[in-house]
Amino acid sequence: MRLGIFGGTFNPIHYGHLLLAETAREQLGLDRVVFIPANLPPHKRAAGLASSEARLELVRLAIREQPAFVASDIELERQAVSYTLETIKILRSQLPEAKLYLLIGQDMLSVRWMGWDEIKRLSTVVVARRPGARATRPFDAAHGGLPRGLAQGRGERAKRVEPRREKGLRWLTMPQVEIASSDIRKRIKAGRSIRYLVPPAVERSIRDRRLYR
Fold it and tell me: For residue 203, is it within any domain?
């Protein structure tokens, strides 16, 4: 099995996420893409984060018409900070014969990760280009040099490093669609439309649950 791993807060999930996953599925010949909402992301503040139950439901609504997409609560069940390395190790133990592909946006190449080299050993890292993102090398938080007070994790607050060519990465060729969950949340709070930014079922659920107001 060729399995795509797509983690994130999905706060909320939007068409940009779905386009990335579908592009990866097609270009890499993936059998499944598993969407894994983070419980507590190490790289973002928790303020404004919808409940894990609500975000998981939004993911399920967004992907229900694509049978190759599945949602997992593997990180939500841990009820702790969500580290990609731990998730990949669990999936590797559960699916030892699977070939794992970690799907990330280009912006995630310039934040701190725990065990970056081990992540690359256990999976193929696939990068989707993002508008305006710089191609920088991920700083491995497991190898010192961290300022005091910074946690170590999948994507802590961005620390820019000198741009360099990172070996062993796969790049996706995809349309440059600039949609951000933060912008969607701002639109909702301001009473503006989010139509055509998220699937209709996601829009309805956000409205019914009164999320992000």
Answer: no
